Amino acid sequence: MRYYLIAGETSGDLHGSNLMKHILFNDPSAEFRFWGGDLMASNGGTLVKHYKETAFMGITDILINISKILKNLKFCKADIEQYQPDALILIDYPGFNMRIASFAKAKGIKVHYYISPKVWAWNTKRTFKIKSDVDYLYSILPFEIDFFKPFGIIPDYIGNPLCDAISEYPFNPSFTKDNNIQKPIIALLPGSRMSELKHVLPIMLSIVNSYPEYEFIIAGANHISENEYQQYIGNMPVKLIRGKTYDVLKNSHAALVCSGTATLETALLNCPQVVCYKFSKISFAIGKMVIKVKYISLVNLIMNRVVVKELIQDELNTQNIQKELNKIISGKMRNKQLEDFIQLSEKVGKPGASERAAKLIVERCSLK
Question: Which residue intervals of the chain are DSSP H helices?
């Protein structure tokens, strides 16, 4: 069967890759055409567009690139219609993917939404579009099941694919030795978008010289060049290691993490953290009006209480980072986070999300 997948950012590439692998197991003759990245490409098929060309974040970033986004939408619709897949698999990335879902539904193409849009955070009206345009919804967050029920939507809760990614990752037992690391590590995860790098990384780096007893390592994204990071690092005593985030976190004593999927990854890898986020002023002002949740980190959202400290916008400054980092380097707060991470892991569930989703998708395609 023919599968068309759309992932628009780093996390989508990771989850899409694992999903494709399990689709191939259940359907060895599977053909893939997809928007994603290098991880998805490792499963074969045709990469139509890399996520480094499509990952836009915040109102300002979207407005600046609106012409490019509209061209991408037009091209994507034509490409899907020409390919005529047995299944369209949308992976998160709702601003783009919900528009594609409407198009595909009208063309009679079955729409599978893997990693449901976070409509519980903002734009609840989009839930009605999910009901009308999405044939099958696959949820990875336990609280989403109760959220969707009043709208007459019954998602398949498959567990969280991050558990798969972590359980299958080939950790390097010689990581610290191979990278000549002599001190305890504080990891910096500044996000995978250029706008996040611009707003978040300089503030993270502002504390480096206050902690000479630690090794600071930026867990960099492969699709962002070394030069992009280096313009912020300058002559600071900071290592950049790209494409090895799980190894970095596994060996870290603590981490500063840009809000997003990485907050949950960090917790599942038992690394105490401070969550950091900063938008442009325009994006933040609009976000305050539309975002409906109490927390921005997945860790706090899943636990429905404050487990990790969130420093957002003006709260994200050198003084506050130092204050919160000191709490998780040692003492009661560190121990409390580690205890809470055990409960979090139990809530999220066991590995196998990608396998369960793939099996359902292949079975449902076979019923056509």
Answer: 10-26, 38-41, 58-64, 66-83, 94-106, 126-133, 144-148, 161-168, 175-178, 194-205, 226-233, 245-250, 261-268, 281-290, 298-303, 318-329, 332-348, 353-366
Residue pair 365/84 in contact by the 8 Å Cβ criterion: no
Q: What is the mean pLDDT of the chain?
A: 91
Contact 245, 356 (CB under 8 A): no
Measured CA distances, 241 to 188, 249, 304 (Å)? 10, 11, 33
Q: What are phi and psi of 81, to 5 degrees?
A: -65, -35
All residue ranges of the chain with pLDDT < 50 are: 285-286, 289-290
Domain count, the chain: 2
Same domain for 152 and 173: no
Determine the residue type at 220.
G
113 and 90, same structural domain?
yes
Residue with structure tokens 């012409």?
67
Q: Are both 98 and 229 inside the same structural domain?
A: no
- Write the DSSP assignment of 5-59 as a string of letters: EEE-SHHHHHHHHHHHHHHHHH-TT-EEEEEE-HHHHTT-SEEEEEGGGT---HH
| Burial tier of 364 (Cβ tally within 10 Å: 0-12, 13-18, 19+) | middle
**pLDDT at 286 (0 to 100):** 46
Angle at the Cα of 243 from the Cα atoms of 139 and 39, rounded to 5 degrees: 50
344 and 358, same domain (yes or no): no
Give the model confidence (pLDDT) of 297-310 as tens digits: 999 999 999 999 99
User: Looking at residue 230, which CATH number applies to its domain?
Assistant: 3.40.50.2000
Which residues form the domain of 335?
A: 168-348
pLDDT tens digits along 31-76: 999 999 999 999 999 999 998 877 665 555 566 667 788 899 999 9
